[in-house]
Write a structure and sequence with these properties.
about 220 residues; mainly alpha; two-stranded antiparallel ribbon; about 60% helix
C-alpha cells in the first residue's frame, strides 16, 4: 500500500511540474546557480537545494519536516525492537519457548495456538499435510501456562509489528519529502522571486493511535 501511494505521488509530482511550466530549455531566473546541483542537494537533504538557491524560508520548512520524519522513524524503530525483545522473553518465560533463530511464522503460531502439539494437530487435520508441522524436538516446543499469557504475548507482538510498520511508512515519507523538495527546486529555479506565486508543497505525518496518517499538503498564498 505504501509503494502504491508513492507511485501515485510520482505521477502527481510529474503533473505538478508540467503544470508549473518547467522547461530545461528556459533561462534560469537565478543566474550562476546550477539546477543539477540544487536537485542533487535536495535529493540528499530536502531543503538544501532551496537554501543553495537562496530560498531560506522554504529550506527551513523542509529541514524541519525531514528532522521530524527521522525522529519519528528512530522512535518507532526503537520501540518496535524493544517490544520484540519483550515478547520473545515473555514467550520464553510463560510458554517455555526457545525464541532464538525463529522466523516470523513461528511467533505468529505461538500467538495463535496454546502449544506446538495443538498447532500440529490442527494443521494435520485441516491441511492433511505434514510439510508445515513442527518437529517434536525441544527447539520448537511451546506451551502457554494460561490463555491470558498467550493473549498478552499476542498484544506485545502486535505492538512491535505496528511500530516497525510505522517506521517503514516514515521511510517512504522521507522519500516523498525529497521528491517534494526536488519539485520545489525545479519550480523556483525558473521563477524570479518578484514574480513568484506562493505555492507550498509538503507532507505531514500525524499519529493515529498505533498508526500514522500521512497527508500531502498543498497551499497557495494570494
Amino acid at each position: 500500500m505504501v509503494y502504491k501511494k508513492f507511485t501515485l505521488f510520482l505521477l502527481f509530482a510529474a503533473s505538478l511540474a508540467i503544470g508549473q511550466g518547467f522547461s530545461f530549455k528556459e533561462e534560469s531566473a537565478l543566474g550562476g546557480k546550477s539546477l543539477i546541483k540544487a536537485v542533487a542537494l535536495s535529493a540528499l537533504v530536502p531543503g538544501t537545494g532551496e537554501y543553495y538557491l537562496e530560498y531560506k524560508g522554504r529550506a527551513y520548512i523542509f529541514w524541519g519536516t525531514d528532522a521530524s520524519i527521522w525522529l519519528g522513524y528512530y522512535g518507532f524503530s526503537k520501540w518496535g525492537n524493544i517490544k520484540e525483545e519483550e515478547y520473545k522473553a515473555y514467550a520464553a518465560r510463560y510458554a517455555d519457548a526457545l525464541p532464538e533463530n525463529k522466523d516470523s511464522r513461528f511467533f505468529d503460531n505461538v500467538a495463535l495456538y496454546d502449544s506446538r502439539d495443538d498447532y500440529n494437530l490442527y494443521t494435520l487435520l485441516s491441511e492433511g499435510d505434514r510439510t508445515f508441522l513442527y518437529p517434536e524436538t525441544r527447539d520448537y516446543y511451546w506451551m502457554w501456562q494460561t490463555n491470558d499469557n498467550k493473549n498478552h504475548f499476542a498484544s506485545l507482538r502486535s505492538s512491535s509489528k505496528t511500530a516497525k510498520r510505522n517506521a517503514s511508512i516514515l521511510l517512504a515519507v522521507a522519500g516523498l519529502n525529497r521528491l517534494a523538495s526536488i519539485v520545489d527546486v525545479m519550480r523556483v529555479y525558473y521563477t524570479p522571486k518578484s514574480n513568484e506565486e506562493h505555492w507550498r508543497l509538503g507532507f505531514d505525518a500525524v499519529p493515529d493511535g498505533d498508526n500514522i496518517t500521512c497527508r500531502v499538503l498543498i497551499g497557495r498564498r494570494f
